[in-house]
Amino acid sequence: ATGDVYTAEFLLALDAFRGEVVTLDWAAGTLTVHAPADAAAALTRTGVPARIATGDTGRFYSALLPVAASRGTFWFLLDSGNIRGTLVARHVARDGRLNVAENGDAVLKIGARPPLTLRTEAADLDIDGALGAAWLLLSPVTLDLRDGAAG
Fold first, then answer.
1. How far apart are CA 56 and CA 96, in angstroms?
2. Fewer Cβ close by (within 10 Å): the C or N end of the chain?
3. Per-residue pLDDT tens for 92-132?
């Protein structure tokens, strides 16, 4: 129910929260489904804009978060199951719009949040990149999954 905070270890697909505003606090191990009266404040505190990808058939429900580049924006998949770290597609690393150091460190500006340095790993991806558990552990993330609100 909205307004409830859940603490448990289980797997839920993001589409279970379609139509809601949710905060994922990975470090605390909580997921909060916000009541309508609290949604705007939660988005102001820890919100990140997201595009929702549903795939060719509409079966999938994946959040892609904006990562500023020197020219334009990349969209990285929010992947809580990714324990490898922050993945950057090889085509992104090669094109020079995202500055990735020799050691893999990259300064990423995700949404309106301040830039931060994350260790990245080049990967063969069809998407621009993936933000995993390493990024989620840094601070809570609020997503607006209401129809027409994300994106």
1. 30
2. N
3. 988 888 888 889 899 999 999 999 999 999 999 999 999 99
What are the structure tokens assigned to 80, written together?
């809580």
pTM: 0.86
Q: Which residues of the chain have pLDDT under 70?
A: 1-2, 6-11, 148-151
Give the C-alpha separation, 23 to 20, whole Å.
10
> What dihedral do alpha carbons 58, 90, 87, 75 form, nearest 10°?
-50
Q: Are 77 and 48 in contact (CB under 8 A)?
A: no
Contact 151, 49 (CB under 8 A): yes
Backbone angles phi, psi at 142, to 5 degrees: -105, 130
Instruction: Classify the phi-psi angles of 121: left when phi > 0, otherwise alpha if psi is within -120 to 50, otherwise beta.
Output: beta
pLDDT at position 37, please?
A: 96
The set of residues, in sequence order, having a beta carbon less than 8 Å from that of 100 and lying 6+ positions away, is 88, 93, 106, 120, 122
